[in-house]
Amino acid sequence: MAAISLHSAFGILHETLGLRKLSARWVPKALREEQLVRRVNLSREPLTKIEANETGFFDRIVTGGETWIYRYDPESKIQSKQWLPRGSASPVKFKAERSARKVMATIFWDSDGVILTDFLEGARTVTASYSGTSIITTLNLTTLDYNNLLRRTIRYSTTE
Predict the structure, then answer these.
(1) Where are the domains of the chain?
(2) Percent of the chain residues topping a pLDDT of 70
(3) 3-state secondary structure (DSSP) of residue 120
(4) pLDDT digits (tens, 9 = 90+) for 39-89
(5) Within 10 A of 134 (CB to CB), how many other CB atoms are there?
(6) Helix (H, G, I), strand (E, B) or coil at 16
(7) Could you tell me the pLDDT band of residue 140, with boundaries at 50, 70 and 90?
């Protein structure tokens, strides 16, 4: 072990050598070369249409997102901080665990706003089939209406 202080080591690393400590950036998964090329091409396509000033381009985009929502998500210790007068006793916070039960919340929207909000219970996942069925059911569309919606909609998918 080196016989220098932590402060000295920090100074050498940061100031003298110009290094900084960074955390790795999380990515969903390692992509193959063809997947990376596909993502770049999918990203460039809308930019081309925007630059070409294509009429109604944004009106034809429908996108969505998903997130897990826990049935019970306790306040963190920091969130439960309180302003108290000097000398008063500290409040007590019991450690609570997030509930094991959770729901997958999905939302789809276009340039006019939210089209669909849905909640999936259990271990179900969001698939193209689920998305289509949900939109048909929620918007009370016939299959013909749904096909017309798909025809006017630009769909971009970055997954294989």
Answers:
(1) 56-74+98-160
(2) 69
(3) strand
(4) 898 888 888 888 887 777 777 777 778 888 877 767 777 777 777 788 888
(5) 19
(6) helix
(7) low
How many Cβ atoms sit within 10 Å of the Cβ of residue 94?
A: 5
Query: Cα dihedral sign for 38, 44, 50, 53?
Result: negative
DSSP states along 87-125: TPPPPP----PPPS-EEEEEEEEETTEEEEEEEEETT--
Q: For the beta carbon of residue 18, count every other beta carbon within 10 angstroms.
A: 7
Q: Alpha-carbon distance 124 to 58, whole Å?
A: 31
| Cα–Cα distance, 160 to 158 (Å, whole number) | 7
**C-alpha span between 132 and 153 (Å, rounded):** 12
pLDDT per residue over 91-124, tens digit each? Answer: 777 777 767 777 888 888 888 888 878 787 766 6
Structure tokens at 101: 């039960």
Q: What is the distance between the alpha carbons of residues 14 and 117, in angstroms, rounded to a whole number? A: 48
